Amino acid sequence: MTTASPVPTPHVHAPHVHDGCCGHDHVHPPAPAQLDPRALLSGRGLTFVRGGRSILTGVDIDIRPGEIVTVIGPNGAGKTTLVRLLLGLDAPDRGVVHRRSDLVIGYAPQRFDIDRALPMTVSRFLRLGQPAGDAEVGAALAEVGAVRVANQQMTSLSGGELQRVVLARALLRTPNLLVLDEPVRGVDYAGEAELYTLIGKLRDDRGLGVLLVSHDLHVVMAASNRVVCLNRHVCCSGVPETVAQHPEYVRLFGAEAARAIAVYHHHHDHRHDLGGDPTPVSRPSGEEPR
Amino acid sequence: MEPYLLRALAAGVGLAIVAAPLGCFVVWNRMAYFGETVAQASLLGVALGLMFQLDLTISVLLVALAVAGLLILAGRQTAVPVDSILGLMHFGALAAGVIATALVRGPSVDLMGYLFGDVFAVTGSDLMWVYGGGALALAAMAWLWSSLLRLAVHEELAAAEGVSRDRVRIAFTLVLALTIAIGMKIVGILLVIAFLIVPSVAARPFSSTPERMALLAALTGIASTTLGLGLSLYTDAPGGPSIVLVMALLAGLSLTLGGSRNAR
Questions:
Q1: What is the total count of domains within chain B?
Q2: Where is pLDDT greater, at B199 or B261?
Q3: Is A118 in Cβ contact with B264 (below 8 Å)?
Q4: What number is the average pLDDT over the span B76-102?
Q5: In chain B, is it the N or the C terminus that has fewer CB atoms within a 10 Å radius of its CB?
Q6: DSSP 8-state secondary structure symbol assigned to residue B263
C-alpha cells in the first residue's frame, strides 16, 4: 500500500463495537453485542463447525432497512455458510439468528444450474409457488431489465440474464431484504457495474436492506453502506473506504485490490427530491442492459 | 377382445399414466439410479412375501420403503459418493433377493415372472391395486407438484422460500415405492423403472413446460403399451419387455427428431 495510512494501533482486547479491524489472533468478547431492534436480520456470535473444523467463529452481523451490507472475503472464508445460517438453511452450532417479525427475504443463490431435462420458461419460473399476474411479472422483469427473455427457456439464458431473472423472482416476493450470494458470478465487467447500479437503485427506491456476498473487489464496495470483511471470523467492518485502507483487508486481498476500490463509484441515475422520494432524471436510453 | 388381453391393456395403461409425472421428477432430479436400486431391492420383498404368505404388493411396498429410507440415510455419510452406495445396495439387494427367493421356493423357482413381470397374467385384484393405488399416487403428485417443481429447479432457493425439503422428499419416496410395488406385477422389478424414465425422456424434446412433459410422457407410455402388447401377441414375445422395447424406440426416435431443436 502506497498511501501513508497510519499504522494500526493494537486493539484493546475488551468488549468493543465492531467498527474497526481486528488482528487474526483476536479473541472475541464472550458477551454478544446487543440486538439492534431496527435490524431486519441479525446474527450474534454465529459459530459453525463441520468435521472438527471451525468454518465460522463468533460472527456478528446486522442488516438494516435501506442499507447495503457487503460481505467480502477470500474463497473458503465462510461467506456462503454465513448466508446459509442467516437464511435458516443450516443451524449454527453456537449463536443466534434474529429475524424481524415482518421480514420477507428475496434470495438469489450463488449457483443456478437448472437441469437441462427440466423445461421451464422464465415467466413460469417467476410464478412458481407465488401467485403473480402478467403485469407483475412484466414489471419485475422490467425492473431488472430482462423483459425480452420472458418467454425463453431458463436453460437458454446467459449468466447475466439468469442473475437478473433470479433477482426478478426475489423482487416478486415484495421482500424487505434481498440476500444476493455472488450476484455477478459469470457476468462480464459492464454487466457487473449495471447490476450493482440496479441493486443500489433498488435500495434507494424501495428502501430495501441488501445483504451482498462477494469475492469480487472492484465494483462492489463503493455502493455499499457497510462492508464486512470475513475470513472465518469478522476481520474488519465499516464503511468501504475504511475497510479498503485497513491492513487486515490489504493482507487478505493485496494492495492491488485495495487500490482497485477507487475505480468505481455508485453513480446515481436519479436525485432525491425534497421529500426524499427518488425522481428519475434523464434516464439515458442506453441504460437498458443488453 | 379376450379378457386377459383387456386386463393387460388396462394395467399397462394405468401404470403408464401413474408413472409419467413421477418419472419426470426422477429424470429432473437425476434419481434414475436411486429408483432402480429401490426397485431391484424389492425382490427381497417378493421373497419375504412368499415366506410369510403376504400379499406380494404389500411386502414389496414395505421393502421398497425400507430400502429408500436406508438410501436416504446412507446419502448423509461422506466417506464415498452416493452412487457407490447405490451400486452396493443395488447388487447386494438383488443377490440377497435371488437367494432368498430360491431358499423359499427351492432352487428351481422361476424368477423370470418377478424380474420381468407377466402382463398377460394380471388379475382383477392386481387391477384394483393399479387403479386404487395409482389414483392415490396421482393425487399425492398433484398435491406435491408445485413443491417438487420448486425443489427440482433449485433446492436451496425453495428451502429458503419455505418449502419443507425433508417432508416433500419423504412423500415423494412413498409415492415412488407405491408405484414400484404396483408396477412389479405388470413389468417386473427389472423393468418397472423403465416405465418412469423412458417415456419422460421421449417427451423432453417436445416439451416447453413441465406439465406438457408429464402429459406427453403419459401418452408415450399409453402408446407403447398398446403397440408393445400388439407386438407381443403377433410374435409371442414376452409382454413387458415388448412394451419397454417400444418405449425405448420411441424415445430414441424422439431424441433424434427433436434433440436438435433445442427443446423450444
A1: 1
A2: B199
A3: no
A4: 84
A5: N
A6: -
